[in-house]
Amino acid sequence: MLLALLIVAYMAATLGLGLLAQRRVHTARDFMLAGQQLPLIMVVTTSFATWFASETLLGVPAKVLEGGLAETVEDPYGAGFGLVLVGMFFASRLYRLRLLTIGDFYRRRYGRGIEIFASTVILLSYLGWVAAQITALGLVLEVLTQGALSTADGMVVGTLVVFIYTALGGMWSIALADLFQMTIMVGGLTVIAVLAGESAGGAGAVWQEAQHRDLLRFFPEASLSAWLAWLAAAITLMIGSIPQQDVFQRVMAARDERTATLGPIIGGTAYMAFAAVPIFLGVAAMMILPSAEALFAEDPEQLIPTLVLTTMPLALQVLFFGALLSAIMSTASATLLAPTTTFVENILLNIVPSAAAHRLKLLRWSLALFALAVLLYARAMEGTPIYDLVGKAYQFPVVGAFWPLALGLYWTKASRQGALCSIAAGLGVWGVLEFSDFGAILPSVLGGFLASGLGMVLGSLRWPQQDAAPVEP
Prior knowledge:
The chain is mainly alpha-helical. 78% of the residues lie in helices and 0% in strands.
């Protein structure tokens, strides 16, 4: 019970950060982009926090233990490298455009029709992403309260806390909370990993156990089907994270172009490196826990929480669950704000332009509605593995939004009709492969990605756009 009380105090502190951030929010730009005043350290921590969430701490170790590092090409390695690509090829050009949302780029480059199409695709991808975090919050709160709160009740409580502090300060709340939460998470998990390694006989013993279980193999077996599946997994988060509002907000919230470029590169690199810690803990848990094999067979995502609860002192239990809640809440808040801003700026205001005068109020009301929608979706999908929820969510921007963004920035011949062909071809081929036996031959996300790129090129060449906006202002 003491552990639960301490965690309640931690969540109260997070709400306090929301109240502090509220003082900085005076306009919709403040709410969405923190007034474009974030220094490098905050852009790095909030970029890192974009991906270090429940699936990293609980889902990734389970995937490694099930099939080795090859199972993690989607996340953390694809996801982390996606942030690096954003910094290298997209951040600088997008920052110069001074946009509020990623959807604004599609409007400026291709017109309002493509803006609404692309924004809808991006919006849909967030349902599974945020639902994964809400599900994890429910699971954690059930464990901490020893069943006093069910998973379903925990989802409600967790959603309410995340909604309140995000609604108070928007991107300012997220940036401040991420700085606080990521400090706790990195420090706490590092200490726990050191102690777990000692209990397992040292880091070398854990490494040898991983080798013995053949967990360090990163590439798939030498067959065409295995390589196609591996490539499809690799591009899902690597490419799917690029045309996303939560990543865009971190770029645009930076105080200058250099910060916008370096932030995601450092954050993505740090994420890929630090993701080794939960993997290490998962292997150590298999060596330390007497019931590890049975627990792994029943629910592999419970290995690390069980290790901490049964072998660590109370102080480290608080650090671990504080770190876990930090990871979940930081991602949940960002992925609640991102679709909200996309909906208001790129869909609602296109339907009701006169509502622009009440933009800040609309953002907060829409945040509440999206939080409710995600909670209902999470309840409906309860029982789906956290890692799978995230992976499925990010297929939509891969097949429907990436190529119009990338070629719109770098190819002057990219046209409105090309973008429309790209979205239609990508989603169409993805749907055929996803819901038919052909998907066993070519993975749906890979087929949709290739079709989307081909549609963009052929459509732009066949129907050039005479009034295309310049790539840069």
